[in-house]
Amino acid sequence: MNTISILSTTDLPAAWQIEQRAHAFPWSEKTFFGNQGERYLNLKLTADDRMAAFAITQVVLDEATLFNIAVDPDFQRRGAGAYAA
Q1: pTM for the full predicted model
Q2: Are 22 and 35 in contact (CB under 8 A)?
Q3: Sheet of 63-71: strands edge to edge?
Q4: Which of the four, 21, 60, 72, 74, has the lowest number of CB atoms within 10 Å?
Q5: Shortest CA distance to 40 belongs to which of 12, 13, 17, 19?
Q6: Rounded CA gap, 5 and 28, in Å?
Q7: CA-to-CA distance for 56 and 71, rounded, in angstroms?
Q8: pLDDT (tens digit, 9 = 90+) per residue, 8-45?
Q9: Do 14 and 51 contact (CB within 8 A), yes or no?
Q10: Domains of the chain
Q11: Assign residue 11 a region: left if phi > 0, alpha if psi is -120 to 50, beta otherwise?
Q12: What is the mean pLDDT of residues 51-73?
């Protein structure tokens, strides 16, 4: 079962690993950890009891911006990115 929930601070190490594995040119550690906190609405997708993907977003009034999305390579080509977006 797939579940979308808030990306918490305890999830960040796993999300950082996905960031490194999923992108040819991943964000720097400073950028990744700097895009967390109350100004952001960051989400994770859990599948098979593992974090499969995450999205870094920011919502201001009625507008949302997607800054980053990453799907763990183990879950790619299975619709996880479309589900998370």
Answers
A1: 0.86
A2: no
A3: 3-6, 43-47, 50-60, 63-71
A4: 60
A5: 12
A6: 24
A7: 12
A8: 999 999 999 999 999 999 999 999 999 998 889 999 99
A9: yes
A10: 3-84 (3.40.630.30)
A11: alpha
A12: 94
Provide DSSP, 23-84.
Answer: -SSPPPHHHHHHS-STT---EEEEETTEEEEEEEEEEETTEEEEEEEEE-GGGTTTTHHHHH
Alpha-carbon gap, residue 79 to 66, rounded angstroms:
18
**Contact indicator for 67, 54 with CB cutoff of 8 Å:** no
Amino acid at 16: W
How far CA 12 is from CA of 24, 58, 61, 79, in Å, comes to 19, 17, 26, 22
Q: Token digits for 36?
A: 């967390």
Q: For the chain, what's the residue count?
A: 85
